[in-house]
Design goal:
- The protein has 102 residues and is mainly α.
- The protein has one domain.
- Helices cover 75% and strands 0% of the residues.
- The longest helix has 22 residues.
């Protein structure tokens, strides 16, 4: 679920970026809006506190954006990018999977 949310958020934002920065068609805003709306809907499907879902999503988002950098922009992440991503995903795992009494 976290990976799907990250892809829909990055994809929607990327389409807006293409429109604004690459002078692509305004029609890209339609799939961008749909992707971002789907992302927002996915955020509501978790049974835990909203703030925790958003915080945990952030760690996965960092890793997804670096994967996007490599796959779409053809820029290989460096060792610092990878290390930062690992730290973010570890933080996400602590937030998402910590044993809680509630």
């Amino acid at each position: 679920m976290y990976a799907l949310k990250a892809v829909t958020e990055v994809g929607g934002c990327y389409l807006v970026w293409l429109w604004l920065k690459q002078n692509r068609s305004g029609w890209l805003l339609l799939p961008a809006a749909l992707s971002l709306a789907f992302f927002a809907g996915l955020l509501t499907l978790h049974p835990v506190a909203t703030g925790r879902v958003y915080a945990a999503h952030g760690g996965v988002y960092v890793a997804a954006v670096l994967a996007w950098l490599w796959a779409v922009d053809a820029v290989l992440p460096d060792c610092w990018d990878v290390l930062g991503s690992v730290v973010a995903v570890l933080g996400m795992a602590i937030i998402a999977f910590a044993p809680r009494g509630n």
